[in-house]
């Protein structure tokens, strides 16, 4: 697992595991102590919200827990990413987290540049259109002046740029707290309280798997590398009408013209010979 993805331990009570795992939420925010830090605000440490993978029970290795401080994408965006982007499970979101970090760092840098631009505009002795200041003006003026006059002046001071920076900072906070919920849609979160922790729990068969099926590439990966995941899913969800075994296995039997009435037992024999053992008797493959 990568840094922000943690597997909950088997032998530790859930509340105790969350006490340790969510300690990052209580990191002290740097305080502004002098006038220079008003202009150059101390950097806040970036962290991805921890995603705690459930490692036992019916939702093993697909269900997870996150803090309620997390923010989520709208359902339709998450659905597009999963269906058309091929990002289907939590482990696949590593690349998205890199993009998230890059966008957050860009917003933070841009806010700093805009703040410096607004500060030097109050110093009449500085001509912002001379070198090197004009570089700063060129980089930020399109934003700070784009909606000039949108808000009324306050005691003769134009506040539109400040309001825009506030909105941009809010967008930065949203991105900083963003958690990607694959394979679930964000609306599938269930709010719970465990001890002192307010969390969202994701569990059960994801809605998109009911509607579109589990991507065959993911089923192949489970079959070759993590047959225990297939075993656990079939144990608890074998009768929900979702295929957990790769299509090629089912197709092999179909092309062999096996009597459909005996298909399930044939699948059992086949997967058992490939080091997978579980009860398929109640699973309908077709």
Structure description:
The chain has about 290 residues and is an alpha+beta fold. The chain folds into two domains: about 5-200, no CATH class; about 215-270, no CATH class. Helices cover about 45% and strands about 5% of the residues. The chain has eleven helices and five strands, in the order βααββααααββααααα. It has a five-stranded mixed β-sheet with strand order 1-2-3-5-4, covered by helices on one side. A hairpin with a 2-residue loop joins strand 4 and strand 5 (about 195-200). Helix 4 runs antiparallel to helix 6 and helix 10 (about 245-255) crosses helix 11. It is elongated, with a radius of gyration of 26 Å. Residues about 275-285 have low confidence and may be disordered.
């Amino acid at each position: 697992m990568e840094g922000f993805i943690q597997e909950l331990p088997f032998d530790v009570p859930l509340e105790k595991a969350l006490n340790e795992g969510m300690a990052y939420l209580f990191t002290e925010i740097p305080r502004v102590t002098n006038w220079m830090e008003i202009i150059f605000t101390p950097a806040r440490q970036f962290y991805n919200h921890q995603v705690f993978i459930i490692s036992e029970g019916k939702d093993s290795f697909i269900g997870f827990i996150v803090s309620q401080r997390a923010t989520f994408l709208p359902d339709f965006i998450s659905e597009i990413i999963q269906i058309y982007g091929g990002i289907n499970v939590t482990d696949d979101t590593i690349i998205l987290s890199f993009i998230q970090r890059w966008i957050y760092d860009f917003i933070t840098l841009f806010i700093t540049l805009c703040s410096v631009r607004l500060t030097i505009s109050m110093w009449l002795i500085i001509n912002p259109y001379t070198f090197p200041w004009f570089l700063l003006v060129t980089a930020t003026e399109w934003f700070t002046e784009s909606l000039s006059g949108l808000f009324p002046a306050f005691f003769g001071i134009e506040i539109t740029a400040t309001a825009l920076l506030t909105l941009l900072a809010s967008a930065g906070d949203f991105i900083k707290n963003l958690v990607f919920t694959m394979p679930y849609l964000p609306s599938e979160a269930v709010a719970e309280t465990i001890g002192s922790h307010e969390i969202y729990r994701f569990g059960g068969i994801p809605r998109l798997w009911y509607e579109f099926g589990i991507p065959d590439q993911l089923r192949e990966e489970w079959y070759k590398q993590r047959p225990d995941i297939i075993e656990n899913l079939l144990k608890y969800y074998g009768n929900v009408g979702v295929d957990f075994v790769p299509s090629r296995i089912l197709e092999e039997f179909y092309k062999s013209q096996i009597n459909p009435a005996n298909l399930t037992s044939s699948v059992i024999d086949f997967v058992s010979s490939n080091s997978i053992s579980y009860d398929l008797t109640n699973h309908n493959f077709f």
